[in-house]
Write a sequence for this structure.
């Protein structure tokens, strides 16, 4: 994969932007927006959607930049991350800290004033969950880091739902469960083909601590759990036939990847599984949204 390297002319703003992991945050924000749309029977107030989206995106970007700040030394020894501005660039630690604090603080202020206090507190807790509990405490300590830390990545639909309703009911918790169960197969697919880098960086990821075969088995195990969680929105009448049809197709392909990886490992297959995991989550949430609006279109 081509990596973007920091050029000498790249400004501090551009370097900070890259630290915010824009592509990961885009999918995170997408799942939050779907949470907002599902929370209203018809359309939620669009100004509220806009404020909540901007607020959550700013805090998520600040959390990602803070993660890069903490992991500067680890990122320097991994091929995937050594082109980050924290390693190759001119941005200083103080600049990252100030910009991350400013951007995150602005996001929280928007959520507090223009959305509601519940969403602000939950987003702050999500920030702490990813930037501190996952990055600082769990990641260097246990191979269960991403299983527990995955709770932060699973929060955005709950944040979106809380933004519109000021409340949390079982529906957003089902969306939480789906992303929570999706995170281990998503990450372990990558960790399998990057295991040597994680080993060199001294990080106790599952393929490093328990080996490749054990990780492949657990990837398959979590894929079964994931499939079960994706059926819950249909089982509870939160979503209809269109959703469950899409989910079953997406699930069948994920399972085929997980079984193939379990039976016969190759780096190429692990890379494909990782890429598919991202497509899968985006499509699953898109299906939830379409399913929500189909009755309104008279379908
Ligand atoms: C603890 C939870 C998670 C871990 C450990 C994790 C890990 C990773 C890693 C290491 C990458 C980098 C791949 C690369 O550089 O080639 C990645 C990419 C990605 N992740 Fe995750 N992830 C997590 C949660 C999430 C969540 C919750 C989402 C979205 C809802 C997400 C969406 C993505 C996307 C879209 C990419 C691709 C980024 C790109 O193409 O540059 N991840 N993930
Ligand atoms: C709303 C809000 C505050 C959300 C925060 C949640 C958040 C930003 C989750 C991101 C998940 C993510 C980028 C994991 C990457 O793993 P890693 O950090 O181990 O990857 P790396 O090796 O690329 O740094």
């Amino acid at each position: 994969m081509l990596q973007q390297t920091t050029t000498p002319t790249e400004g501090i703003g551009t370097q900070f932007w890259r630290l915010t992991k824009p592509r990961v945050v885009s999918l995170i924000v997408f799942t939050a927006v779907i949470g907002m749309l599902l929370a209203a029977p018809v359309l939620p107030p669009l100004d509220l959607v806009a404020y909540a989206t901007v607020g959550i995106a700013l805090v998520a970007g600040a959390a990602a930049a803070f993660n890069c700040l903490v992991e500067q030394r680890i990122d320097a020894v991994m091929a995937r991350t050594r082109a980050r501005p924290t390693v190759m660039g001119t941005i200083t630690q103080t600049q990252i800290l100030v910009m991350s604090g400013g951007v995150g603080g602005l996001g929280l202020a928007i959520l507090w004033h223009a959305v509601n206090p519940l969403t602000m507190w939950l987003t702050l807790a999500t920030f702490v969950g990813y930037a501190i509990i996952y990055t600082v405490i769990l990641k260097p300590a246990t191979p269960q880091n991403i299983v527990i830390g995955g709770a932060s990545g699973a929060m955005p639909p709950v944040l979106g739902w809380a933004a519109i309703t000021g409340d949390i009911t079982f529906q957003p918790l089902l969306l939480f469960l789906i992303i929570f169960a999706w995170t281990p197969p998503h990450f372990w697919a990558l960790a399998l083909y990057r295991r040597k880098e994680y080993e060199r960086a001294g990080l106790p990821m599952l393929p490093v601590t328990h080996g490749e075969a054990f990780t492949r088995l657990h990837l398959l195990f979590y894929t079964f759990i994931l499939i079960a969680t994706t059926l819950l929105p249909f089982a509870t009448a939160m979503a209809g036939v269109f959703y469950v049809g899409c989910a079953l197709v997406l699930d069948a392909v994920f399972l085929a990847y997980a079984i193939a990886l379990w039976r016969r490992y190759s780096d190429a297959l692990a890379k494909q599984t990782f890429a598919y995991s991202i497509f899968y989550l985006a499509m699953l949430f898109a299906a939830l949204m379409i399913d929500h609006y189909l009755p309104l279109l008279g379908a």
In short: The chain is about 80% helix and 0% strand. Residues 23-24, 27-28, 31, 80, 134, 146, 149-150, 153, 179, 183, 186-187, 190, 278, 281 surround protoporphyrin IX containing FE (ligand 1) (CB under 6 Å).
